[in-house]
Amino acid sequence: MSGDEVTSKSVPSTSETNNIEESSEQNIAVSDVNTGAVEIADDKTSTSDDYIRLRVITSDLNNEVHFRVKAATPLVRLKRSYCSKLGHQINELRFVFDGHRITDEDTPKKLGMMNDDVIEIYQERSGGGISFV
């Protein structure tokens, strides 16, 4: 693939996702109305074996989005796409895989992700520290 594709029925893309095209085709059928499938690819051509399907789920389990990403693509692209699609700022959310926070430099390959692995989304919190008076 030469560009990125977004497949969604719930939320239209915004101008912030520059190289993403919308398609009416639904790649993954899920009963939840808030579900969409998003494909993120690098500009380099490769075989389809390099792709991994990931599920991004909010902590309250009310929203699930499926992504198809290349194993070597930094997950910051997935994070940006998710935030843009749902109208969040990237610093408002915490992306977690297997109990560990995902950094911008992490890739699915580096984290050992496999098809249908789950990335959990949590609202970023501040405060709550110990006060020394």
UniProtKB/TrEMBL annotation:
InterPro entries named among the record's database cross-references: Rad60/SUMO-like_dom (IPR022617), Ubiquitin-like_dom (IPR000626), Ubiquitin-like_domsf (IPR029071)
Occurrences of domain Ubiquitin-like (ranges): 52-128
Residues of the signal peptide: none
Record-linked Gene3D superfamilies: Phosphatidylinositol 3-kinase Catalytic Subunit, Chain A, domain 1
UniProt xrefs under PROSITE patterns: UBIQUITIN_2 (PS50053)
Region Disordered: start-end pairs: 1-31
Assigned protein family: Belongs to the ubiquitin family. SUMO subfamily.
Protein name as it appears in the record: Small ubiquitin-related modifier-like
Native source organism of the sequence: Aphis craccivora (Cowpea aphid)
Species classification: Eukaryota, Metazoa, Ecdysozoa, Arthropoda, Hexapoda
